[in-house]
Amino acid sequence: MTRAREVIVVGGGLIGSLAAFTLRGAGADVLVLDADRPGAAWRAAAGLLTPDGERLRGTPLHADALEGLGRWPALAAALERSGVPVHLRPGVTRVQPGGGVACTPGEGSLHPPSVVRAARQGLEVVAAQVQALMPAGGRVRVRTDAGDWLAGQVILAAGAWSGAFGVPVTAQQGQALLLRGAPAVGARYGPPARGFSRYALSRPDGLYVGATSRRSWATTPDAHAARWLRGAARTLVPGADVAEVASFLVGLRPVTPDGLPLVGPHPTLPGVLVTAGHGRHGALLAPVTAARVLALLEQGVSA
């Protein structure tokens, strides 16, 4: 039997869950279909809200990054009404070459897994892998391994796997490290090393240290990245070298050829809006993306 819903969000990660949360708050009937794939970016994301730390000043993303940063306090408060804290924290410092620390006011961090859990409270989330999206008499047929649905509108937010549905998105692997028993620190950046950004921040699940970056679909950690991350931890947080490794994290960041996210109508599928390709800036840009999706649906822009 084919089931029908007003809006189906394909992908229940940070972008998809926040889009669904925002649409439900506006009164939409929303279903989230999530494949729960290994390598989902939100599970390995740092949660940094740092336009300057990510060197976005002077880029096409800077205005959206600042808007996202400004939207987070109100959005965090709305999410936390679910009873799940998202751990929004102000304050970022930078370890200077040769020593010393500089503070950047206005930036901060949060905990992406907690954001996803909070956003999903009250949402219907079905474990299903979407196999195809097809026009169906003014609606969209969503074919999955758990059966078919018909949707008036589909939001494609499948992260790196969005490329399977005809949009230019692929994977950029990032690896990070969680340490247990390390000294507590606020979010801090170190000088880049070997082309990678180095940063550390205390989170509810441990001291997070990141992050590598390479074009790969691999979802398992590797020894070279582990050594680099331990070195980054020693540089950024004195005393971290004796901390216990809680886990190695691997995430597949969704990236586009020009580095800019896709937020708008699908190029060939009527009734499908694309929200993918946010790369390493998903947490920072998610509030803007969710607001833009809501505005597009309210304007009737879907094809």
Break the fold down into its secondary structure elements and pairings.
Layout: E1 3-10, H1 14-25, E2 30-34, H2 41-44, E3 48-49, H3 62-80, E4 89-95, E5 101-109, H4 112-120, E6 124-127, E7 130-136, E8 139-144, E9 147-156, E10 170-180, E11 187-193, E12 196-203, E13 206-210, H5 223-236, E14 244-255, E15 262-265, E16 272-276, H6 282-298
Parallel strand pairs: 1-2, 1-9, 2-6, 4-11, 9-16
Antiparallel strand pairs: 3-5, 4-5, 7-8, 8-9, 10-13, 10-14, 11-12, 12-13, 15-16
Helix pairs in contact: 1-4, 1-6, 3-6
Keywords: Oxidoreductase
Protein name: FAD-dependent oxidoreductase
Domain FAD dependent oxidoreductase: 67-292
Would you write up a description of this structure?
It comes from Deinococcus indicus. This protein is of the alpha/beta class. The chain has one domain: FAD/NAD(P)-binding domain (3-Layer(bba) Sandwich). Helix content is about 25%, strand content about 35%. It has six helices and 16 strands. The strands form two sheets. Strands 1, 2, 6, 7, 8, 9, 15 and 16 form an eight-stranded mixed beta sheet that branches. β7 and β8 form a beta hairpin. α1 packs parallel to α4, α1 runs parallel beside α6 and α3 packs across α6. The chain starts with a strand and ends in a 5-residue tail after the last helix.
